[in-house]
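Example 4.3 (complexes with small molecules)
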Amino acid sequence: MAFSINDIVEEARLSARSLLDYGDSFFNPTVRLGVTGLSRAGKTVFITALVHGLVRGGRFPVFESLATGRIATARLEPQPDDAVPRFDYENHLRNLIDDRRWPNSTSDISELRLAIDYQRHNGADRTLTLDIVDYPGEWLLDLPLLGKTYEQWSAESIALSRQQPRARLAAEFHAHLATLDPNERENEQTTLKAAKLFTDYLRSCRDERFAMSLLPPGRFLMPGNLAGSPALTFAPLDVPADGSAPDASLWAMMRRRYEAYKDVVVRPFFRDHFSRLDRQIVLVDALSAFNAGPEALHDLEAALAGILDCFRIGRSTLLSALFRPRIDRILFAATKADHLHHLSHDRLEAVLRRTVDKAVARSEIAGAAVDVVALAAVRATREAQVQRGRDKLPSILGTPALGEVADGQTFDGETEVATFPGDLPTDLDELFRGDAAFRGLTAAAADKADYRFLKFRPPRLERNGTEEPALPHIRLDRALQFLIGDRLQ
Ligand SMILES: Nc1nc2c(ncn2[C@@H]2O[C@H](COP(=O)(O)OP(=O)(O)O)[C@@H](O)[C@H]2O)c(=O)[nH]1
Ligand SMILES: [Mg+2]
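Answer. The structure with magnesium ion bound is encoded below.
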């Protein structure tokens, strides 16, 4: 493989940074924990619950160091990276506990530092610094672009857009594409239109009825301060994978901008954030994929494989032995498990495990431990048995959010109801088969779908005097044990 000067300079910079970080952590052990997942996967809620559980002391029986009393205190420290916004912990917590509202949606990177004072098994007192970095999974799914030419990316994106249900959503983009000759003279208006239609198509794939996951380039859907810039204004063209673009052609213009996207967006993310992580949790909203149906699950599978490839890219594609990305533990977590009766939690985990195992086998990531868990960072429901005719149905009790609809009833956001969301099938293959063995919203109306998930409000918590109430959760402690338990030995 040939490397450009650019990559070598980058590499040198990365190694210098790693050495600095390393020297630092020798005296003051630090773990940089990346928390990622597509938009709405549950990152903000997860971090808020995790920090609250550490600072306040949550009910975490499986998180050994806390459960056995070896953690003395955990406190917030000033955010260390000057160019990264601080994770707005206090506000998110107030939303959850006082207002019973989920935190507002965020779409940028943010960071928070915790210092954890603990006692080692041998009795020595130590402090572990935990830096938690919240970043969009959409950015992670951009990393594979580093290894693709514009022509390769075009061919892949167009092929994907011709599969169902994407093809239906891409109809307008396809119609425009058919009018374009890649060899014609470059033209800003043509490019703007193509980029807009391509972005519209990506956006409609995110609709809850389709819940597609694999949608690079990620910044097309969350442009931030780059909105409207040339680096975000391009689209795939029907060009041969090994062809070369004539000077001043539409093709050459698109290719230049694609390369600019890699320079301006993807490489800086890799250098400044991804390459510095030690541990990673990837949050997956698998229930939304069930809600939509088998196509969404297959798409999710492809996205998870793409994510795992990123860790491999980190290891081998980006050059020499000097620099080794440090991530040695990766946890895939299916979030919002409180939408299921606990009888289905193991099935949810099994679905994720099956998907991840396939991807692990393919991507040959060496040296990193991978695990999966089904969790709810904040448990919004309780369980109950509800009598229906002669049967007792395992149900969940919760307060549906204002405006949610089920069985023709619209909820007011105050009334608690018992619902039966539907069981996940014991035969996992049913979930993935496209023959309507398991119907989601893509194929059926809401009341005909086999699994339907309602949005609940955060739980009502009893305050005990002035003490802050603990947030109920499902298996959050197991996630913590896997992610940092070994660093608190
Ligand atoms: N019931 C329940 N809902 C959750 C949980 N975590 C997230 N959610 C829902 O998912 C939405 C998105 O979560 P958020 O943390 O903002 O996702 P982000 O975009 O990945 O940061 C929230 O507004 C909640 O409706 C959870 O543990 N339980
Ligand atoms: Mg967020």
